[in-house]
Amino acid sequence: MKAVVFSEVQRLAVDHVANPVAAAGEVVVQIKAAALNHRDVWIKTGQYAGLKFPVIPGSDGAGVVSEVGEGVDPEWLGREVILNPSLDWGHHERTQEPRFSILGMPKDGTLAEAIHVPVGQLAPKPAHLSWEEAAALPLAGLTAYRAVFSRADLQAHEKILIHGIGAGTAMFALQFAVAAGAVPFVTSSSPEKLLKAAQLGARHGALYTHGGWAKEFSDHFGQFDVIIESAGGPGFGDLVDLAAPGGRIVFFGATRGNPPELPARKVFWKQLSLLGTTMGSPADFAAMTEFVTRKGIHPVVGSVFPLDRVAEAFDLMERGAQCGKIVIRIAE
């Protein structure tokens, strides 16, 4: 079969590799479409922990079950499914266990014509989604759902600020907030991404590249019950200022590094909760797919590339030029 293979740092190729075989408790899924995430770029560039080469990257995928291993109900054969990329979460909802990993490193991932995974990683493909939309859902949808609901406990009519709209997880956070009846606001470095967010239901947006944006935004729209962000870095203090008393700041990344300082007095005086989150549990994944199905949510797919143009897809993500998910069409 054909697959994207990282043979070493910065070495990406579409190669022929052995077909996967379902072990006991596993299935083989013929992948129809897969999607990129920032972790795929970080693995490619050598900026990810526990690197192992060669590896087939990819955490997001959707396809059809073509083979079942020993102990798996044969009724799975032929089913259209999406893959939960959160492996071996463990027994507690509060946090993952040390053996937790994510599909695509160290286990070979979805950027291939087929993959073998434990049957417990499967969920029915939401019927209202195309293959490209279904492939865009798992990792970013799971991360956003846990951040917005399991961690922040967002309620209807609360004000939520999604800092850095454009990438898949932030877009899902916005869509989930709208569907839950919250009042969403966004920031971005791009006027075009702010316009897209407005089309999805954001009330207002701000360009965080403009000096003094946080104070101006607060003066116009007040403070926020929930803030979702993934950048860290020097701008984190602005989010503390923007949080309402009793507010929750949830973060799942630090692409700009650690904040140079944390205004501790503001945090404790305003009774703020700083909540870290990573991926999500099987229960989160089940709740997320049910929510998407019940609310009729369509993932925002920004670009679709065929497998033989996957290098262009990675280049687009590395430039940060995407708005919505970047999807790789594996098979028709």
Characterise this structure.
The protein is an alpha/beta fold and 332 residues long. It has helices at 38-44, 131-136, 138-151, 168-179, 191-200, 213-221, 236-242, 264-269, 282-295, 310-318, and strands at residues 2-8, 11-16, 26-35, 60-68, 80-83, 86-87, 101-102, 114-118, 122-124, 159-163, 183-188, 204-207, 224-229, 243-251, 273-276, 301-306, 325-329. Strands 3, 4, 5, 8, 9, 16 and 17 form a 7-stranded mixed beta sheet that branches. The radius of gyration is 20 Å and the shape is globular. The mean pLDDT is 95.
Quickly list its features.
332 residues, Quinone Oxidoreductase, Chain A, domain 1, alpha/beta, single chain, six-stranded parallel sheet, Rossmann fold
Spell out the blueprint of helices and strands.
Elements lengths: L1 E7 L2 E6 L9 E10 L2 H7 L15 E9 L11 E4 L2 E2 L13 E2 L11 E5 L3 E3 L6 H6 L1 H14 L7 E5 L4 H12 L3 E6 L2 H10 L3 E4 L5 H9 L2 E6 L6 H7 E9 L12 H6 L3 E4 L5 H14 L5 E6 L3 H9 L6 E5 L3
Parallel strand pairs: 10-11, 10-13, 11-12, 13-14, 14-15, 16-17
Antiparallel strand pairs: 1-2, 3-4, 3-8, 3-17, 4-5, 5-9, 6-7
Summarize the structure.
The protein contains 10 helices and 17 strands. With 332 residues, it is of the alpha/beta class. It has 2 domains: 2-137 and 299-329, Quinone Oxidoreductase, Chain A, domain 1 (Alpha-Beta Complex); 142-276, Rossmann fold (3-Layer(aba) Sandwich), CATH 3.40.50.
Q: How many β-strands, per DSSP? A: 17
What is the third-level CATH name, the topology of the largest domain? Quinone Oxidoreductase, Chain A, domain 1
Radius of gyration, whole Å: 20 Å
The CATH class label of the largest domain is Alpha Beta
